[in-house]
Every structure is written in structure tokens, then in C-alpha cells.
Automatic annotation (TrEMBL), chains A, B:
Residues 15-114 form the Cyclic nucleotide-binding domain. Pfam families: cNMP_binding (PF00027). It comes from the Bacteria. This is Crp/Fnr family transcriptional regulator. Gene3D superfamilies: Jelly Rolls. It comes from Chryseobacterium paridis.
Amino acid sequence: MQDLLRIHIEKIVPLSDEEFAVVSSYFTPKKYKKHQFLIQEGEAVAYNYFVLKGLLKLVYTDDTDKSHIVGFAMEDWWESDFRAFYTQSKATMSLECVEDTEVLCLTLEDYRKLCNAIPKMERFFLEKAYFGFIAAQQRIISTMTSSTKERYTQLLEQHPALVQRVPKSLLAAYLGVSRETLSRLSP
Amino acid sequence: MQDLLRIHIEKIVPLSDEEFAVVSSYFTPKKYKKHQFLIQEGEAVAYNYFVLKGLLKLVYTDDTDKSHIVGFAMEDWWESDFRAFYTQSKATMSLECVEDTEVLCLTLEDYRKLCNAIPKMERFFLEKAYFGFIAAQQRIISTMTSSTKERYTQLLEQHPALVQRVPKSLLAAYLGVSRETLSRLSP
């Protein structure tokens, strides 16, 4: 199962068997059931998660108790409340299983040790961070300039497997529209 | 003037005089007048820019020719059309001077050479990329959950110097409201 991590990393930096053994030693596997929380708002965020199997939703709850879906994560994706993780502050979001999920967990301390032990892993994380930033900026632009129908079409083009798999009510919460509005947009 | 770059980098990684001389050798200084373009939509993006002096706006123009301000950059900030820069594709945004501006320019090739020459610079760029990503994610959440007045107040709290300095018409375009609506929100 950890092979998925190796394939994922080697898309950016090649690793010898010895190097991957070192990388792998910093991660702890965990399993969660559907509806379980990996991160709860208001609590400490111990890990950055690499998803081996399953589906997660990252949720922000506003002052009026309304839930907004900030993002999803499935196989081969990283997810956390990154601000809370990197600044070691309390979570402002929750991370919850939409399906039974298996993850590899990395603490901030082990992340730093890993980068010291295998410096080229810093290049890997740098590239992931850049493309995370670019995707977030594209989403900001899309929110500023596109209709809900256009944003739905973009999501379908970029992540067809995700759209297939995520319950329609959650897709609606991600796009910021009602379930009924989304039904009218679906092809 | 390049001292600003050294102070900026040393907030994250310390540099010896020799190391900073190497870092500095990869940057080219350039000066632009108000209204000049550093990046034009549809053209190649040669540089990532570190702002020494002045004020820039990053603009996305939609299919109906409406301009949306994606971000601003002033002293001590980095700016580019990052997607176009890192993927060496054509710009989908423009970067234009709001004031006379002085920048240090870094090509993608020199960025890679710099990271190879001084590997700890990778840590510096990694931290900038993380916090860029976190800021973009916070902005997505803010757009999902906050009123224009709340977003204006947040901007004022986070970047008071920027709000003072940016013409009100541009602030309105950044917040996605009319100049009149913004006037009603200003304290």
C-alpha cells in the first residue's frame, strides 16, 4: 500500500530503495471509518495526511453554524488544516471521512527530520506547495469570474473521478449552491 | 537596495556574506514606471519578481473584458503569474505598475541554479509557497463565508499599509464590488 506513496513521490524526485525506506519510516498508517474525524475544529492538528484509500472532506463551519466544504481529498492527495499544522495552532476546519479511509500520517517534527535526512524531499514538498498555491489561486479566479455552471463544468473536467464519487449534496456545498440548483446544472 | 532581499530571506534562513553574494548574483534589477506592464496576458512569463519599491496589481480579464484584481504586491512581496512561470506557459493574467516600481527579477532557470548552489534557499522558497497557499485558502474560505464588509475589514486588519495606499477603485475591483458600495463600507 505504501507503494502508492513511492510512486507519488517519484513523479517528482527519484528515490533509491534505501531512501524510500527512510522516507517511509517517518509515516504512520492509520485507518478511519466513514463519518470519523481526522481533524476537529478547535483541537490541535498533529498530522499532514497522505490518502492511500478513501475520501475526505475539509469543512469550515461559519458563525451561523453553516458548513462550507473547502476541499476534498482522495487517493494520492495530501490534506490537513495546513495553517494549523504549520503554525501549530488550533484547527479552524474539520477533516472528516466521506468513505472508509486509509492514510499515512506525518507530524511536523518528522516532516522536518525527513527533509534533513533526505534533502531532495524538500524539492518534492516545494513542488506540491507551488501547485497547491496555483490551484488555490485558479479557484479564487474561477469564483470571481465564473458562474456556478461554469465552475461545475471545470470541476468535472479537472477531477472527473471525484465528481463521480462525491455525494451530490457535498458537491453542492462545495460549489456554494443548493442541492436543487446543482441538479439543474448536472448534465 | 538589495539589502531588502537579504533581510527578507534571513527572516527564514540565515545567509553568510558569501552566500548572499551568490544568491544576489542570480537576480537582475529592473525599474518600471506607473502603468507599465511587467507581464502581459498571452505572452511568456520570464520572471518571478521580488518587489523592492512600488506597488503592482495582478489582473485577470474575463471573456466579457471585465478586469478582476487577483492580488496586489508591494515592498517585500513576490509576484508573478505563477502558473505560467512554473509551467513555462503563456500568461493568463497581467502584472501592471500602480506606482513607479523597482523589482529584482529571477528566471526559472536561475531559480533552479540558485537552489542547487545554495540548497537552503529551497527551504526559504518552500516556506513562502506554504504561506502563499495558506493565504489563498483563507481567501477562498473568506469569499465563501464573509460579507464584503467583513472581507474589507479583514483586509484592513491584515494589510493596513496596502489599504491606505491602493486607490479605492482598485480595492473595489479586488473585493468584487462597485466603487460606490466600497464607499459605504469604508469607516
